[in-house]
Amino acid sequence: MRVPISHSLGKEEVRRRLQSHSHEIAQYIPGGMADVTTSWPSEDRMDLAVRAMGQGVDGCVIIEDDQVVFEVNLPPALSFVEPMVASAIRKQGQKLIAPK
Questions:
Q1: What are 66-91's pLDDT values in tens digits?
Q2: This prediction's pTM
Q3: 3-state secondary structure of 69
Q4: Residue 30: which residues within 8 A CB-CB, separation 6 or more?
Q5: What is the DSSP string of 31-48?
Q6: For the chain, where are the alpha helices, taking DSSP H only?
Q7: pLDDT given for residue 52 in this prediction
Q8: Which residues are within 8 A (CB) of 53 and not within 5 positions of it... i.e. 6 or more apart?
């Protein structure tokens, strides 16, 4: 699943904001019991590993010139929640790159 979010901040500013707020991602996952691990394999890509309620979801955030693309690999057992996950990513993704 790909969820693009437009921005006009420039890559460097988006990168800075994601790096400084990535520790907040677990707060955006319902249930409050998520474990989120992030890594930066390149300057324009943040990989995510989310573990919650016995399930694991991997994905990444790709920083482009005019958008941030969240790519999430939902397991088949969770495919029915894709619309809800996409909506949450749009809403919470905006918060991650918003000024604090």
A1: 999 999 998 888 788 888 888 888 88
A2: 0.86
A3: strand
A4: none
A5: TS--EEEEEEEETTEEEE
A6: 11-21, 82-97
A7: 78
A8: 31, 33
Residues with Cβ within 8 Å of 14's Cβ and at least 6 positions away in sequence, in order, are 7, 63, 68, 97
Dihedrals φ, ψ of 67, to 5°? Answer: -155, 160
| Residue among 24, 23, 16, 79 at smallest CA distance from 43 | 16
**In 3-state terms, the chain is what percent helix, strand and coil (to 5)?**
40, 35, 25
Q: What residue ranges define each of the domains in the chain, with the CATH number in brackets?
A: 2-97 (3.30.310)
pLDDT value at residue 78: 78
Q: What is the pLDDT of residues 27-42, one digit of tens each?
A: 877 666 788 999 999 9
Mean pLDDT of 49-76: 89
Question: Quick one: pLDDT at residue 56?
Answer: 83
